[in-house]
Amino acid sequence: MFWIAILLTIVSNVFYHLFQKVTPQQANPALSLAVSYLVAAVVCLALLPLFPLKEGLRESIRQLNWASIGLAFTLVGLELGFLLAYRAGWTISLAGLASNATVSVLLLPVGYLLFRDRLTPVNAAGVLVAIVGLVMMNWGK
Q1: Greater confidence, 100 or 70?
Q2: Long-range contact set of residues 13-21: C-beta below 8 Å, sequence gap at least 24
Q3: Residue 101, class by beta-carbon neighbours within 10 Å (0-12 exposed, 13-18 middle, 19+ buried)?
Q4: Measuring CA to CA, how many Å separate 5 from each of 8, 37, 67, 76, 131?
Q5: pLDDT above 80 for 25
Q6: Which alpha helices (H) appear in 1-141, and where do they start and end?
Q7: Cα pseudo-dihedral 66, 71, 72, 75, rounded to 10
Q8: What percent of the chain has pLDDT over 90?
Q9: How far is 36 from 41, CA to CA, in rounded Å?
Q10: Domain residues of the chain, as ranges?
Q11: pTM for the whole thing?
């Protein structure tokens, strides 16, 4: 499951950026996202048999917390941000890379402070490479 899960995120992320990039320029961004989320809700409900509720719907809903609502707002911000970035001229080859590299660097202190993640020397070297890469990607802009 370890590798299958990350493979799913990679494949989905590639198609995510492709679909964001080919969303028509004239399409209303809020309506486009609303349709996407309505379809996503149907897909999530269709997935329930693969991830059965252990205690029924009411109890399963009670087990949720504020994070589900917060995630909804951040998903809209993420989707809208990329849609507008592509409309503003970001290339599909750099927008995701610039965003993900920056997010990764910003999550380092979050991981350490909130979850006690550890940074090895090899990880630290990777962070430096990511930072240098970000600078190089945006050089001369």
Answers
A1: 70
A2: 13/96, 16/82, 17/82, 17/92, 17/95, 17/96, 18/92, 20/79, 20/82, 20/83, 20/86, 21/86, 21/92
A3: middle
A4: 5, 22, 21, 23, 27
A5: yes
A6: 2-22, 29-47, 57-62, 66-87, 92-115, 121-137
A7: 170
A8: 75
A9: 9
A10: 1-89, 91-141
A11: 0.85
The two three-digit tokens of residue 62, written as one number: 């009670």
Rg (CA), the chain: 18
Q: Which amino acid would we find at residue 63?
A: Q
Distance, CA of 77 to chain centre? 10
Residue 104 CB-density burial (10 A; 0-12 exposed, 13-18 middle, 19+ buried): middle
Cα–Cα distance between 141 and 15 in angstroms, integer?
27
Burial class (CB in 10 A: 0-12, 13-18, 19+), 83: buried
Each residue's pLDDT tens digit, 43-97: 999 999 999 999 999 999 999 999 999 999 999 999 999 999 999 999 998 899 8
Average pLDDT score over residue span 111-132: 91
Which CB contacts under 8 angstroms, 24+ apart, belong to 124-127? none
Distance, CA of 102 to CA of 98 (rounded, Å):
6
